[in-house]
Model the fold of this input.
Amino acid sequence: MTTAERVLVESLRAELSAIEPHRRCCRAAELAGLAGAFEPRRRTVTRVALRLSRGRAGESGGTAPAGGALGGAIATAPPQEVPPFDWDRVAEHCRIAYLRGRFLAHGSLSLASGRTHLEFVLEATEARQLCDQLASFEMAANWRLRRGRGVVTWKSVETVVTFLKVVGGGSSLLELESRQVSRTVRGDLNRVINAESANLQRAVAASARQMGAIDTVEADGRLAAQPYVVRLVADARREEPEATFTELAERLGLHRSAVQRALERIERLALHPDEGVGKRGRLRKPSAWPRRPAGEAGAGPGQAD
Done:
């Protein structure tokens, strides 16, 4: 990650670490979520656990355990010794506090290379359980085993942002959303520009090819022998080499398909000068061309072209 992205992730974690649950049950739930933190999270988790445990002691009228014994025990307990937490029986606000604790103790967020990736590294037995818990908030996640540990993963920006909102993300989350919106807009704009550039290149190449074909067919006299519409389209293409089929059709009062067929016919004539392509009597499509204006010399509609 870049320095700015790393600072943003640290700010998000700092905001979540500073949240003070108002309910005693939520403090207990977050403490349960902080259990079993892996290195190098233990120092941060210890500070959060100390603050939460002191808050619990203050609410009950007692004093905090000397030296923050409860916080230290939670932060340094082996990963498998998770304090009991009955997900099915607690209220939603307690579940949110628990998930916040699990993220602080076991979660990581990466914004490297424009990609958002959030994962929890847990004991293998808990990974599937956490997926089920997250699914209850409509935030489906995948999990796999990695070096003997369960890894719960999100790669969807929308899901990651939703999770961080649920667990209490603040101004740093707004900054993350702003960056993601800007990145999405830039990506969409680049795709549109690339598509338009590719279309323009194809149009220029096709126009140059058609102009060359018109010159070739006119030089050997075959263009003059073509139906009226073919000659009409050839003249229009010469006058407007950058026009699209649709623009030529609107100018000439023809269907777009008629313009396309006329130019394709000219290109076939240029590619096959000795094979009789387009000669009179070889192609007979009376319904493909509109009727010649009155008084125009040459073969009329329905005649061999």
Remarks:
- Residues 138 and 305 are 67 Å apart (CA to CA).
